[in-house]
C-alpha cells in the first residue's frame, strides 16, 4: 500500500471510530457539585471537603457523618480486552491520624469472593501508604514504603498512582509524581481485574473505612508515562521539580550484596537499617540486593533510591531512574534493567543468584576429583549462568554498546583464584570453575581481579564474615563478584566490605566497584 493511500485509509478508519486507532482518554471522577449545585445520587449522603485538589473532595474522615465507601459501577479495567491500565488519585489524611492497626483500603477492585484479582492502594498503620496486587486465588504482593520518605498522615494532599501491564507482568508505583518502585508480578497467578472499583474501604461498611479525603480519581486505559504523572502532581504543587540527571557521569559505584534473609538476622528493624548504613557509607549508586525478602522498600527509602523488585530474592536499588526491565531465565535467579545515569549515558545491569548446591566444602571433604566437581557445577550453577547469558545476549543486552555489568552471589569461585600458587588455600585443589570461565568467554572481566591480579596476596574472600579466619576446617572463598564489559569502562577501585561499626548484618561480604565511564551519547 502506497503512503498516500495508507494515510487516507487511516483517516477514514479514524473518522469511522475504529477502536484500534482511537487514542485512549483517561476518565476522572471528581467530587464537585454539578451546574445546578446538586450532588449525584451516589454522593447524596456523603460529606464533601471544601479544600480539595480541584473544588471539593470526598470526605471519609472523622468529621464526616457518612463514611460509607463508594462502589464505582461505571468504571471498568479491561479496556478493549487488554489488562493494561493506570490508576491515580489524590489523598489527604488529617495530620497525625492513623488508620488503625490493620491499615485502611483507599481504593481497590479485588473481590476474593468472586475470585477477582486486582489492585489495592491503602493507608498503612505506620503513617505511610501501601499498594499491591492480588491474584484470582487470593495471593498478594505488596509495596510497603516508610513514612520517613513517603508520609501520608501529614495533612497534605498526596498523589498516589500505579500502573499495570499484564503483557509485561510489571507494576510501577508512584508517590507524588515520582516512580518510586517497579515490581515484577510473575510470582503471582492470573489477575482478571473484573471486580468493581471501591473507594474508601475494602467493603461496604464504615468499620475499616479510610480516615481521610479522596479527590480526582483517574483511570487510564493505557499506561501513563512518568512524565504524565509528574505533570499531574505539579499541576497542584506548581513549584514541584524533579531532580535533574547530571549532564554526564564520569564514574559509577556499583555494589553486589547478599544481605542474608532480608538483613534481618541482627534484627527485624535494626538489620535492614545496618544494611542501608553500609550502602550509604560505600557511596554505591547502583546496588544488586540478594535475599531481599521484604526489606527492599525500607532500604530504598532510607537511601532515597529507586527500587526494582524482580522476585522475593532479587532487587535492584538505584540512585538514578530505572528504565526498561528485562526477564532472563528464572526471576529467583536473575534480574536485569537499563538504568539512565545521566542525560547522555545509560548502563545495562544484571543482578543474579546462582544455586547454593552442590556444597563445595562437602565435595572437598569427600576428596572428590576435580573433574567430578566441575561436572557437578554444570547441573546447577554453570547451567543456570549459561542460560542467563544466552537469554540476555539474544536481545542484545550484552552487546557492550553501553557499559554492562553483571554482579551477584555466584555461590562458586573463580578459575583465576584456584590456581597452583594458591592450592594450599583450597585443600590442595586447582579448579577451572566454569561460571567464571563462562563470564570470560562472554567478554566480561572480573573487576576485583583486574584491580588485584594476585589471588595469593588478595584473595578477596566474601564467604563468610561469620567464619573465624583462624578456623581451618571451614572453607573461606570468593563467591560474590562484579563483572563488566564495554569500551571505555575501567575499574578504578574494588573493595570487599565485611565490617560494620557495631555488627555486620550479613553472612556475605559486600563487593563495591568504582568504575570510570565513557562519555558518549545514548544508543
TrEMBL record:
PROSITE patterns per record: PROKAR_LIPOPROTEIN (PS51257)
Keywords of the record: Endonuclease, Hydrolase, Nuclease, Signal
GO function terms (MF aspect): endonuclease activity; hydrolase activity, hydrolyzing O-glycosyl compounds
SUPFAM superfamilies listed in its UniProt record: Concanavalin A-like lectins/glucanases, DNase I-like
One Pfam family of this chain: Exo_endo_phos
GO biological process: carbohydrate metabolic process
Top-level taxon: Bacteria
Highest classification ranks of the organism: Bacteria, Pseudomonadati, Bacteroidota, Bacteroidia, Bacteroidales
Protein name according to UniProt: Endonuclease/exonuclease/phosphatase family protein
Signal peptide range in chain numbering: 1-24
The keyword Nuclease belongs to this UniProt entry's keyword annotation: yes
Domain Endonuclease/exonuclease/phosphatase per the UniProt entry, residue ranges: 255-508
InterPro entries linked to this entry: ConA-like_dom_sf, Endo/exonu/phosph_ase_sf, Endo/exonuclease/phosphatase
